[in-house]
Automatic annotation (TrEMBL), chain A:
<feature type="signal peptide">
    <location>
        <begin position="1"/>
        <end position="27"/>
    </location>
</feature>
<feature type="domain" description="Solute-binding protein family 5">
    <location>
        <begin position="72"/>
        <end position="458"/>
    </location>
</feature>
<dbReference type="GO" id="GO:1904680">
    <property type="term" value="F:peptide transmembrane transporter activity"/>
</dbReference>
<dbReference type="InterPro" id="IPR000914">
    <property type="entry name" value="SBP_5_dom"/>
</dbReference>
<comment type="similarity">
    <text>Belongs to the bacterial solute-binding protein 5 family.</text>
</comment>
<dbReference type="InterPro" id="IPR039424">
    <property type="entry name" value="SBP_5"/>
</dbReference>
<dbReference type="InterPro" id="IPR030678">
    <property type="entry name" value="Peptide/Ni-bd"/>
</dbReference>
<dbReference type="GO" id="GO:0043190">
    <property type="term" value="C:ATP-binding cassette (ABC) transporter complex"/>
</dbReference>
<dbReference type="GO" id="GO:0030288">
    <property type="term" value="C:outer membrane-bounded periplasmic space"/>
</dbReference>
UniProtKB/TrEMBL annotation, chain B:
<feature type="transmembrane region" description="Helical">
    <location>
        <begin position="7"/>
        <end position="29"/>
    </location>
</feature>
<dbReference type="InterPro" id="IPR003661">
    <property type="entry name" value="HisK_dim/P_dom"/>
</dbReference>
<dbReference type="InterPro" id="IPR036097">
    <property type="entry name" value="HisK_dim/P_sf"/>
</dbReference>
<dbReference type="Pfam" id="PF02518">
    <property type="entry name" value="HATPase_c"/>
</dbReference>
<dbReference type="InterPro" id="IPR004358">
    <property type="entry name" value="Sig_transdc_His_kin-like_C"/>
</dbReference>
<dbReference type="InterPro" id="IPR003594">
    <property type="entry name" value="HATPase_dom"/>
</dbReference>
<feature type="domain" description="HAMP">
    <location>
        <begin position="421"/>
        <end position="474"/>
    </location>
</feature>
<keyword id="KW-0175">Coiled coil</keyword>
<dbReference type="InterPro" id="IPR003660">
    <property type="entry name" value="HAMP_dom"/>
</dbReference>
């Protein structure tokens, strides 16, 4: 044994010398300690920022938000023209964009209109051969795009036209979301011919800066850099013109403390969401830097309005009154969090500052409960996040505190959770009664909160409206706001919607957070993203 | 038929047969050689291929860094084998062989191609395996990183938990304080409910205030400063009436709600943190385990791959699968989880690819084995074929040689016999004729001259030869007769000459003697004249008587003196004559006698005085007395005379001063040495060699015949049986040395031929 170890050490020295040749002083593999498993690898199927970040490495959309901002810029679409009063979008595709190859498939052609058509039609058309493959295109549906789109047409190999039934200012930003990622139609055809269409979601092929290598749940998603990536490193925002990393790994590490330990040990270069209690420790570490950005997010307790007793407005209000959100923010979020008043974060232009902070009034809560005929309280299930999320660093603790608060008014909450994907699936299925969740805007538009999370369309099973709350007045306001480009009108409509939300209390909004990312100081080019994306295009790290 | 043709026939038939055999043999040998070369090539190719297969096995089993060498070797071998096969194909004797070789080459090409594929896959696999190693290392590295991070995290976690627990405790204190306060306030509330307003005074103020203080302290400890301030206000009223009690109760319940929820939250947090701590450490352990498992798996896989054990590797792939699954499932730090999973998956992918490569390689190996086997078989078959061919050619060659040799021998022998007969019969005839002819040259010529072949030629030639020999013999005989006549004439002439010379010499002698005798005789005559004159005068005196004593005395004296003189001169003359007589006898007689050399020499030299006197030359004689020799004095005299004459005529010719001739005699044993030397002008070296040649002279103008020295030489060697040598240098005089025996052998030696110049005659 000793002999072998000595030999290992000896060859290690030799191998280090060999390794040094590759990229001097450059980490070959960049590791991101992510907070959880992605629910899918197919951009059409993802709904969490965790999974979206996973897909963003591999895919590009037609248009995209420049990293660190909510500004739209061209991506796979070199340019676009809006006509017909905002109802027709003509996209001109970038030339010579290459798709990845894998063991099964080698693309024979660059990006074409076919690929764009495939990527959207599969989500839109229920009879598309790929519509049911791999899962449910909930996000596309929740955004109401199915109803919005009138047609998607191929004008020629490089031009695609989207026709909308009505003008929608959120359309372009929506296309910049993960589900807008463009897949290879050729690959899909190939897989269909092979009889393995499900591989489309398991072994994705995109045009992104990294190509997929493998995904092991609970362990890692691994990528290799894609040398034929269409965007040159400088455009990608790399500060130094150095070679990109060879490999990228999302090391799935749900526990915040373990993540931080790994970051400190150099096992990862970037970590998601350091714990609030650890922020000072991160700041104090000379090897680490703390990136923070006010994210467009919200953490909430959704009350399933379709399930008794939550279908009773009084019960929902009682719960809202019984929860000491300040205590929660203070204890769990610390200085990184602010108490949420409604679904929109204060930084959103549609935020209604006139609405007061929801009251914490245990007696009133008890009274309301008594009015609802539940003076003895009731037993219910409370689902808490198994992982730390940008909007909620410690679901369990929040749940603990909520349970304690509820216990005071006689509600006995049963804490329940699943692993992250099962949890998310359960929530989308509508089974839980009370559930902790949250949202980070994918495009910065108020619609992305108010419509996606609370609209009637999203209230259908499988939708993102976890409260399954459908208020026609609210929905109409939100929909109307979507139909116009006028900021004032929209603001007014959204404020109205916010008031209606406050009245109906389908959620207990808990907090908005400042999102933190811990990075090692050797990392260059990584930026905190207000949309919660972890983008590694052009990111490098010194050894 | 001519003999040449016959011989050509005799020689040609076997040669032709042999040539035919040789040609056939050569062809067979070439074919055999080719076959053998083919066999060798095939054998070599077989060897190369076998070797290549082994090398390939090595390459397959080799480690990555060693493989290249094996591969190179493999390709070398196979390319060599390929070249061999190509040569075989080109040299194949039959189409079957060529096709077989061609097929083998194609197989080989496939084989090599497979091997190249194999190498390529192997290199690919090496890369993959190396990459897998890096992946595995990366994993363990990541695990280590995670461990380190976890350790740091644990410390922080402990601190966090402690903080949370402390806060929890403080919160509990607040709850207790709150309960205490509420309890203190409780009697008042009860009293009020009972309507006992008056009893309010009986409330234990002290207890209430104390409880308030305690709560305030606890609240301050938990940073609830505003609440702490509120406590004081709520417990302050004097008197503490029912309303105050209600307010206090209400406030207390609200605070209690907050604090208890906080307490619960803190409880949760602490529990979560503890759970996380436990989980994190478990995860870290699991991460480590994955790292270790991967490392082990990597090692085992590497071993399995090295063994090429795809089954085991497949099992590893399964384990890798499980490992990847557990790495994905575990909550591993995301910082490294992706990397880990990627590392494992990359490892698995590469392992799968590697295994695929391995399987392909194994298939290749199997195929290569098949190909190699068929190749080896083909090479072996080619080898066998070629060897068989070679053997067949060899056997055939042997038979051909045997049969050819027999036939050639037989044919050759037959032809030779016939031809020999046809040659031998006339030859024998010729031989007989020739023998007959030899016995009698005048006999009839040879038969068979009318033949047209070489035997006819020979007969004709022999005839001609014999005739010619006869003719030449006759001519020779004539010539010989002429020569004999000439020789006789020559001898005659020579004898004449020598006689003439002798006579001349004798004449000289006579002249000399006459001259010598002339003097004493002249003196004697004069003296006698004087005496006669005296006597006459005396006689007159006597006659006249005038004789006087003195005159008498004088007369007597004069007559005495004259007589004496007369006697002396006459004696001398007599002596001279005697000597001359002897010399002359000697000369003339050529007789041999014994004599005293000294005396003899004196006499001889005396006879030579006249010759010397003319030039005033002197002669010295150095001869020890008593040397008696038994030889030919005439010969010796002629010799000495000639030598002295030569010295005077040649040595002193033209000399201004009189010369001296020295005759020296010495006796050594049986030999006597006689030297005649002069101090004259000497003989020119070029003439020295020719001095004994007949008729050689430098003074023919002065009447020399050139025979003198020749005769001397002949006399010395022939008569005296001695030797003669001449030494001379111009201006230094000439020495002639004779060595001759005191008594020569009985018979006269034949005259030796004059020897070449300078050489001492024997």
């Amino acid at each position: 044994m000793t002999g072998i170890m000595t030999r290992i050490a000896a060859v290690a020295l030799a191998a280090i010398a060999v390794l040094g040749d590759a990229v001097p002083g450059q980490a070959r593999t960049l590791v991101y300690c992510s907070e959880g498993d992605p629910e899918a690898l197919d951009p059409g199927l993802v709904t969490t920022t965790t999974a979206m970040s996973v897909t963003w490495q591999m895919f590009n959309s037609l248009v995209e938000f420049a990293p660190g901002t909510t500004d739209l810029r061209p991506a796979l679409a070199e340019s676009w023209a809006v006509s017909d009063g905002g109802r027709t979008y003509d996209f001109l595709l970038r030339e010579g964009v290459r798709f990845h190859a894998n063991a099964r498939f080698t693309p024979s052609r660059p990006l074409e209109a076919e690929d764009v058509l495939f990527s959207f039609l599969r989500q839109w058309q229920p009879d598309h051969p790929y519509h049911r493959v791999g899962g449910d295109f909930a996000y596309f549906r929740d955004l109401g795009l199915a109803g919005l789109i009138e047609g998607i047409e191929r004008l020629d190999a490089r031009r695609v036209r989207f026709r909308l039934k009505e003008p929608d200012p959120t359309f372009l930003p929506n296309l910049a979301q993960a589900f807008g990622g463009i897949l290879s139609a050729e690959y899909a055809d190939h897989l269909m011919r092979q009889g393995t269409p499900e591989e489309l979601a398991r072994a994705p092929i995109g045009t992104g800066p990294f190509r997929f290598v493998d995904y092991r749940p609970g362990v890692a998603v691994r990528y290799r850099s894609f040398p034929q990536y269409w965007r040159r490193p400088r455009e990608a925002g790399t500060q130094v013109g150095t070679d990109a990393v060879e490999g990228l790994v999302f090391s799935i590490t749900p526990n915040t403390a373990v993540r931080l330990t790994k970051l400190k040990a150099g096992e990862c270069h970037v970590m998601a969401f350091p714990g609030t209690a650890d922020l000072d420790a991160v700041r104090a570490d000379h090897d680490l830097a703390l990136l923070s950005g006010e994210a467009l997010n919200v953490a909430y307790l959704a009350l399933n309005t379709t399930r008794p007793p939550m279908n009773d407005l009084r019960v929902r209000r009682a719960i809202s009154l019984a929860i000491d959100r300040r205590a929660i923010v203070e204890a769990v979020y610390g200085p990184a969090g602010t108490v949420a008043r409604n679904p929109l974060p204060p930084s959103s232009w549609a935020f209604d500052p006139d609405l007061p902070e929801p009251a914490f009034d245990r007696e009133a809560a008890a009274r309301l409960l008594a009015q609802a005929g539940l003076s003895d309280g009731f037993e219910t299930d409370l689902w808490y996040l198994p992982v730390s999320r940008p909007y909620n660093p410690d679901g369990r603790r929040v749940a603990d505190m909520i349970r304690a608060d509820l216990a005071r008014i006689g509600i006995r909450a049963r804490l329940t959770t699943r692993d992250w994907n099962a949890y998310r699936a359960a929530l989308y299925s509508g089974a839980p009664t009370m559930m902790l969740y949250g949202w980070t805007s994918d495009n910065g538009d108020p619609d992305n909160f108010l419509n996606v999370l609370l609209g009637c369309r999203a209230a259908e099973p499988g939708g993102a409206n976890l409260a399954r709350w459908c208020d026609p007045g609210y929905d109409a306001a939100v929909k109307s706001a979507r139909g116009t480009d006028d900021r004032e009108t929209r603001t007014r409509l959204y404020r109205e919607a916010q008031n209606r939300f406050r009245e109906a209390a389908p959620w207990v909004p808990l907090a908005h957070t400042v999102v933190h990312m811990g990075v090692r100081r050797t990392v260059e080019g990584f930026r905190a993203d207000p949309l919660g994306r972890a983008l590694f295009e052009g990111v490098t790290a010194r050894e | 038929m001519r003999v040449g043709r016959k011989i050509a026939l005799v020689g040609g038939v076997p040669i032709l047969v042999a040539a035919a055999i040789a040609a056939a043999g050569w062809i067979l040998l070439t074919q055999g050689e080719r076959a053998r070369a083919g066999a060798l090539l095939a054998a070599r190719a077989y060897h190369d291929l076998t070797l290549a297969r082994m090398v390939r096995d090595d390459a397959v089993a080799a480690r990555a860094e060693e493989r290249a060498a094996f591969e190179t070797r493999f390709f070398d071998l196979t390319s060599r084998a390929g070249r061999g096969l190509e040569t075989l194909q080109n040299q194949a004797r039959t189409r079957g062989q060529a096709e077989r070789a061609g097929a083998a080459r194609q197989s080989l090409d496939r084989y090599v191609a497979r091997m190249r594929d194999f190498s390529a896959v192997a290199r690919e696999n090496d890369g993959l395996i190396a990459e897998m190693g890096r992946r595995a290392n990366r994993l363990t590295d990541l695990a280590e990183q995670a461990r380190q991070r976890q350790q740091a995290s644990n410390v922080d976690l402990a601190r966090t938990i402690t903080g949370k627990v402390n806060r929890l405790r403080a919160t509990r204190d607040v709850v207790m304080g709150l309960n205490g306060l509420m309890a203190a306030a409780w009697p008042l509330v009860l009293a009020r409910q009972r309507g006992e307003e008056a009893d309010a005074a009986r409330i234990d103020r002290g207890r209430l205030v104390q409880a308030g203080r305690d709560l305030a302290a606890a609240l301050r400890a938990t940073s609830h400063e505003p609440a702490a301030a509120e406590v004081a206000a709520l417990t302050a009223p004097q008197p503490f009436d029912g309303a105050a009690g209600d307010r206090l109760t209400e406030w207390g319940e609200r605070l209690l709600k907050i604090v208890t929820s906080e307490q619960r939250t803190l409880d949760d947090e602490v529990a979560q943190l503890l759970a996380y701590a436990v989980e994190a450490n478990a995860t870290e352990q699991a991460t480590q385990n994955i790292g270790i498992a991967t490392l082990r798996l990597g090692q085992r896989t590497a071993e399995a791959l090295a063994r090429r054990d795809t089954e085991a590797a497949s099992a590893m792939l399964g384990e890798g699968d499980r490992l990847s699954a557990s790495a994905s499932a575990l909550p591993i730090s995301p910082l490294i989880q992706s990397d880990m999973i990627e590392a494992i998956d990359g490892w698995r992918t590469r392992l799968a690819t590697t295994m695929d490569g391995l399987k392909r390689q194994n298939a290749m190996i199997a195929e290569m084995d098949g190909l190699a086997a068929s190749l080896s078989e083909a090479a072996r078959a080619l080898n066998d074929d070629a060897l068989e061919d070679a053997d067949r050619f060899g056997t055939f060659l042997g038979r051909l040689l045997l049969a050819g040799a027999a036939v050639g021998l037989l044919l050759g022998a037959l032809v030779a016999l016939l031809v020999a007969r046809s040659i031998l019969v006339p030859l024998r005839q010729l031989q007989g004729d020739m023998i007959a002819l030899a016995a009698d040259p005048k006999a009839e010529g040879l038969s068979g001259t009318q033949r047209t072949d070489e035997l006819g030629d020979i007969a004709r030639a022999t005839n001609f030869f014999v005739t010619e020999i006869g003719r030449r013999e006759r001519a020779l005989r004539r010539a010989k007769d002429q020569a004999d006549h000439a020789l006789e004439d020559l001898h005659q002439a020579q004898d004449d000459l020598i006689r003439a010379e002798k006579l001349a010499s004798l004449g000289q002698l006579v002249a000399g003697v006459a001259h010598e005798i002339n003097t004493p005789l002249g003196i004697a005559l004069t003296t006698a004249t004087l005496v006669r004159d005296e006597t006459r005068a005396f006689q007159g005196l006597v006659a006249a008587g005038t004789l006087s004593r003195s005159r008498l005395t004088h007369f007597v004296d004069r007559v005495g003196e004259g007589t004496q003189l007369l006697c002396a001169n006459l004696t001398r003359a007599a002596d001279l004559v005697h000597g001359f007589k002897q010399v002359a006898v000697d000369r003339a007689s050529d007789e041999r006698r014994s004599f005293d050399l000294d005396v003899w020499l004196g006499e001889l030299l005396a006879s030579l005085q006249p010759m010397l006197r003319k030039g005033g030359h002197r002669i010295r004689r150095e001869c020890p007395p008593g040397i008696v020799v038994d030889t030919y004095p005439g010969v010796l005299a002629q010799i000495v005379t000639n030598l002295v004459a030569n010295a005077v005529v040649h040595g002193f010719a033209g000399a201004e001063t009189p010369g001296t001739i020295t005759v020296r005699v010495a006796s050594t044993g049986a030999l006597v040495r006689l030297e005649v030397g002069d101090d004259g002008s000497g003989i020119a070296p070029e003439n020295l060699g020719r001095i004994f040649d007949p008729f050689f002279t430098t003074a023919r103008s002065r009447g020399s015949t050139g025979l003198g020295m020749h005769i001397v030489h002949n006399l010395v060697t022939a008569k005296l049986q001695g030797r003669i040598a001449v030494e001379s240098e111009p201006g230094q005089g000439t020495q002639v040395r004779l060595d001759f025996p005191r008594a020569p052998a009985g018979a006269e030696r034949p005259g030796t031929a004059r020897r070449p110049a300078g050489a001492e005659a024997p």
